[in-house]
Amino acid sequence: MEFKLSKSQNEIQKAAWDFARGEFDKNLALDLDKNSQFPEAIRKKACDLGFIGIHFDEKYSGGGLGVIENALLAETFCRKDSGIGIALMLSGYASECLLRFGKNELGKIFLPKIAEGEMISAGAFHESDKGFDLSAIETHAVKEKDEWVITGSKAYVINGRNAGFYIVLCRTDPAGSSDADLDLSITEGISMVLVESDRDGIFFETMGEKLGSRMIETARLTFDQVRVPKTNIVGKEGNGLAQIRAFFNESRLLTAAMSLGIAQGAFDRAIGYVKQREQFGKKIAGFEVTRHKLADMAIKIELARLITYQAAWQCDHKKADEKLSCMAKLYASQAAVEVSDEAMQLLGGYGYMAEYEVERFYRDAKIIELFEDQKNTQKNLVADALTGKSGKIGK
């Protein structure tokens, strides 16, 4: 058993680092975060170099590579700058639903637009009064001749009004059960529908300022009898809950990789500081208490890296393991929060200042920890796998 990246994976990681080091300007990042602006110019350059959609098939203008290569990009970008890294890696959010489940022309039309930098995407899954219980959604799509007519509202939609299209989770069969276990083989009366953002009847409302991930707009969307072609169904009609469970299983790996990069980036800044800072005529990196803190931080990062890489490798080799993906997301996101918090402590008062970046890494780590599903959801899914019980998303 050999635990190391391949030559091509090392080259991808190096290329990503060179790009980030050249484009992720510190002062620009501070301004983008302060003004809640998306790094559009950097995204387009990343698309030109093939970083965005690296895991898409080549027929969709992608790199034809895997989940682990996409994870390496996420780790590297977020290590250099948490805010820009998150914005770039989530610029194609939910496009994997087309990649994995779209069996019609939708993938051919929209995936190249993501990879080539023409648009960004979003997933409209959650509803404000339903929490993480996706089986209870009320947004519905009704068939009228050759169209779906969509009515309802969605909350916490990342990329907000900037997205070119949304993958919307809708109730397409009112008679479908909302209380069955989410086995990947069953039908629940809920489907995924692609909705272009320029369709009539879509209304946007920003959800306000956030603690972290400020470069990405988070919006509330209302659909008022929005009409889309019947062919905009993604995957199998009525199989939306099974599809989103599979999507989340992959998306957790991206989240784990972003968390890993944030933890490493905060650690880099902390160790750079303590090796220069002196107290009582001695570098503080020489004090045992500091050395032990650094050791604890490094251990958490390395463990997060190992479980994230393993889960991504298994996904690429058709051995996707929901339990392991949940473990990776849970542990890596916790490590990001704990390591960035410790980094702030090591920098002292400077850690609280925006110029030293660590406070932003901490803020971004916290939102990543909450992203998509919370700790209890992941722990329940892990426990379900351990006890042989099929769990529910959001339960």
List the helices and strands and how they pair.
Layout: H1 7-23, H2 26-35, H3 40-48, H4 67-80, H5 82-89, H6 96-101, H7 106-115, E1 121-124, E2 140-144, E3 147-158, E4 165-171, E5 190-196, E6 202-206, E7 218-229, E8 233-234, H8 240-274, E9 278-279, E10 282-283, H9 288-316, H10 322-347, H11 358-370, H12 375-387
Parallel strand pairs: 1-4
Antiparallel strand pairs: 2-3, 3-7, 4-5, 5-8, 6-7, 9-10
Which features would summarize this protein structure in a list?
alpha+beta; single chain; 4-stranded mixed beta sheet; Butyryl-Coa Dehydrogenase, subunit A, domain 1; 4-stranded antiparallel beta sheet; disordered C terminus; 15% strand; globular
Radius of gyration: 21 Å
Distance between the termini: 37 Å
Run of helices and strands: HHHHHHHEEEEEEEEHEEHHHH
What's the CATH class of the largest domain, please? Mainly Alpha
Q: Which architecture name of the largest domain does CATH use?
A: Up-down Bundle
- For the biggest β-sheet, the strand order reads 1-4-5-8
Largest sheet entry: 4 strands, mixed
CATH T-level topology of the largest domain: Butyryl-CoA Dehydrogenase, subunit A, domain 3
Could you say which structural class the secondary elements and strand pairing correspond to?
alpha+beta
What does the overall shape look like?
A: globular
Percent strand:
5-15%
- What number is the mean pLDDT? 92
Query: What's the tally of helices?
Result: 12
CATH homology superfamily of the largest domain: Butyryl-CoA Dehydrogenase, subunit A, domain 3
Oligomer kind: single chain
Number of domains: 3
The low-confidence parts are 178-187, 391-395
